[in-house]
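Query structure, 248 C-alpha cells:
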C-alpha cells in the first residue's frame, strides 16, 4: 500500500503570520482500499481502526510536530476544546502551544481554520450546517480572541452551494438564528428545497463576529473527487484532514 507524500497535499496560500502552518491532506495514495480508496483518516466511516491509526501516524511523522495531533471525536455540535484535553468529543480545538497541530476531519462539511494575526494561537473548526447554525464558529472565535485579538480565517474544501441541496428545515433554522443567513441560500427548482453554501454562511458568521480577513472557501469536495472525499456524492467514503499549528 502506498502512503502519500507531503507534495501530494494541499498547502494553502494563506499567511496570517510567519509562525502559522497549514496543510490539508488529500485522498492521494493507495493506503486505504475501497470505498475509502486513497488515504482515509476517519474512524467513523467503517474503515479498520488499525489502518486509520497508521495513516494518522504517517501524517504526524511527516509534520514532525512535538505533540501528536489533536484528533477529535466529532459530533456535529458546537463544543470547542483546548488541545490536550482528555474529553475529545468536540468539533473545534485550539492551542497557544507551538508544534501542536489542531485538526478537523471532513468530507463535505467546512473546515474553518483560525489564527491570531500576532501568531500566538490557532484553532481548527468542523463546521457542518448543524454546528454552524448552533454557533460553533462564534465559540471558537471567543476562545481564540477573548480580549478581541485580531483574527484571520481560512475556509477549506467543502461542498459548494451548487452541489448542496437542503430542505426547508435547514433554511428555517438558519433564518431563525439570524435572517442575514438568507444570502447563503438560493431556491431550488424542487419546491421546498434550497441550494446552500456553507462557505458563504461561514463568511456571513465571521463578518458578524468582526473577523474581516477571511480567505479560501472556493474548493468544492463534490466537484473534485480526485483530491477530496464527498459523503453526499459518494455515500460510503473516507475523511481528509485540515491541520493548523504554530511553528518557530
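Result returned for the query:
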Amino acid at each position: 500500500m502506498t502512503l502519500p507524500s507531503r507534495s501530494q497535499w494541499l498547502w494553502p496560500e494563506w499567511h496570517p503570520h510567519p509562525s502559522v502552518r497549514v496543510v490539508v491532506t488529500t485522498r492521494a495514495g493507495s493506503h486505504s482500499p475501497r470505498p475509502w480508496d486513497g488515504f482515509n483518516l476517519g474512524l467513523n466511516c467503517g474503515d479498520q481502526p488499525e489502518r486509520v491509526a497508521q495513516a494518522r501516524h504517517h501524517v504526524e511523522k511527516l509534520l514532525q510536530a512535538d505533540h501528536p495531533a489533536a484528533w477529535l471525536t466529532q459530533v456535529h455540535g458546537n463544543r470547542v476544546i483546548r488541545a490536550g484535553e482528555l474529553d475529545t468529543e468536540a468539533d473545534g480545538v485550539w492551542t497557544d502551544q507551538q508544534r501542536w497541530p489542531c485538526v478537523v476531519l471532513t468530507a463535505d462539511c467546512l473546515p474553518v481554520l483560525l489564527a491570531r494575526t500576532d501568531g500566538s494561537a490557532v484553532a481548527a473548526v468542523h463546521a457542518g450546517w448543524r454546528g454552524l447554525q448552533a454557533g460553533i464558529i462564534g465559540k471558537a472565535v471567543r476562545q481564540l480572541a477573548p480580549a478581541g485579538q485580531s483574527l484571520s480565517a481560512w475556509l477549506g474544501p467543502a461542498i459548494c452551494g451548487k452541489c448542496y441541496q437542503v430542505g426547508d428545515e435547514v433554511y428555517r433554522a438558519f433564518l431563525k438564528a439570524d435572517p442575514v443567513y438568507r444570502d447563503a441560500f438560493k431556491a431550488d427548482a424542487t419546491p421546498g428545497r434550497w441550494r446552500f453554501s456553507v462557505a458563504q454562511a461561514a463568511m456571513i458568521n465571521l463578518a458578524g463576529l468582526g473577523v474581516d480577513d477571511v480567505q479560501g472557501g472556493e474548493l468544492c469536495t463534490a466537484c473534485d473527487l480526485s483530491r477530496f472525499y464527498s459523503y453526499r456524492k459518494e455515500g460510503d467514503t473516507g475523511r481528509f484532514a485540515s491541520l493548523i499549528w504554530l511553528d518557530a
